[in-house]
Amino acid sequence: MTALCLLFISLSFALITAESSVYFREQFEDGDAWKSRWLESTHKSDYGKFVLSAGKFYGDAEKDKGLQTSQDAHFYAISSRFEDFSNKDQPLVIQFTVKHEQGIDCGGGYIKLFPSDLKQEEMNGDSTYNIMFGPDICGPGTKKVHVIFNYKGKNHLINKDIRCKDDEYSHLYTLVVNPDNTYEVKIDNKKVESGSLEDDWDFLPPKKIKDPDAKKPEDWDEREKIGDPDDKKPEDWDKPETIPDPDAKKPDDWDEEMDGEWEPPMVTNPDYKGEWKPKQIDNPAYKGKWVHPEIDNPEYTPDSEIYKYSSIGVIGLDLWQVKSGTIFDNFLITNDPKLAEEVGNESWGATKDAEKKMKDSQEEEERKKREEEDKKRSEEAKDEADEEDKDEEDEDEEDEEEEDEEDGEEEGTDSKLKDEL
Ligand SMILES: *[C@@H]1O[C@H](CO)[C@@H](O)[C@H](O)[C@H]1NC(C)=O
């Protein structure tokens, strides 16, 4: 084989591997047409409704439309199908945006990726999935990004803590799973976690275990220090802890017959030295800490294809929300991390600043409105107070008049009496 031929082969190989596939993309930019692509599960009769909305604030009224949860305290279950594929020998990239514009208290913001044999109308919390990925918030205690893989029929949670965003803006979540069994999690196109699947999940039993046949020898001395055997307790060490108070005197009016025999109160003995301990010296027999020898775990079998799913065909939102209002948008499933980054830049990246600006100006307006209302309310309160003061003054005057009248009557009777006398 000639060098040129080799070069050609490697070039075309590079071209083939560089080819990118988009397995699924959903931007919700064609009105109600999404309803033909997404199917609500009927497993329960009271799933919450998803509506198409860009929300209360957005960067672009059309582009930022996505699926919004619209009913508080509901389960949601909706999914969309695409052509079945396997991520064998290729990266798998899952990406979407989540916007908790309602100020979420407790609720899921994650997606699930299912094998294509999922019955969409039956999808529910127990449906077998391949991957669950995305933010989950519940109170101040739970604010994490889930990365759960189904491996040989069992779901495995990541053993690292990845914090999710908990503000009210749109955020881009990306998971990259590579065929070399490594992964990367990105938020807003920035890496927040990465590593190896084998290390960060407990898919496989540990490579090494403690040798069950190894035992610490009986005479293994782990004491670094010992009491000096040559050290002896001084003869005069032992003294009572308390003694009769030498300064106490029997009171003059003590009556032995009435009060019994007088005894001085007990006080702490200043000569008491506590328990005697020999001085500590280096233990000449010290052997160091015994380390349990390890052996290869017979249960461990390496797996170079932990990352691999033979069938991926449905993406779903299967979650619970207390306070609704979350908007999901810009779904992308591809084998090309670079493309995903670009798409993220062009969608989330292009509207995020305008979204923040709109929210800021709404908040500014609300603040002004509140201030004006407060001002109006305090002016009204002042006017009312003035009115009340006036009323009180009038009442005072009336009271005084009444008193005058009463006085007059009395006077009248007096004068009447006088006249009669
Ligand atoms: C995405 O945007 C960031 C920030 O502007 C930039 O650094 C990065 O190169 C962009 N990525 C792609 C693939 O365009």
Could you describe the 3D structure shown?
This is Calreticulin. It holds the Pfam family Calreticulin. The chain has 421 residues and is of the alpha+beta class. It has a domain of 240 residues: Jelly Rolls. Helix content is 26%, strand content 29%. It has 6 helices and 22 strands. Strands 1, 3, 4, 6, 12, 13, 14 and 22 form an 8-stranded antiparallel sheet that branches. The longest helix is centred in the last third of the chain and has 73 residues. The protein is flat and about 105 Å long. The structure holds 2-acetamido-2-deoxy-beta-D-glucopyranose (NAG).
Low-confidence stretches: 402-421
Task: Please state the second-level CATH architecture of the domain at 22-202 and 306-364.
Answer: Sandwich
Tally the beta strands: 22
CATH class of the domain at 22-202 and 306-364: Mainly Beta
Bound molecules: 2-acetamido-2-deoxy-beta-D-glucopyranose
Q: How helical, in percent, are the residues?
A: 25-40%
Using only CA atoms, what is the Rg?
Answer: 41 Å
Structural class: alpha+beta
Number of helices: 6
Oligomer: single chain
Summary?
With 421 residues, this protein is of the alpha+beta class. The protein is 26% helix and 29% strand.
List keywords for this structure.
421 residues; alpha+beta; Jelly Rolls; 8-stranded antiparallel beta sheet; disordered C terminus; binds 2-acetamido-2-deoxy-beta-D-glucopyranose; Calret/calnex; repeat; Calreticulin; calcium ion binding
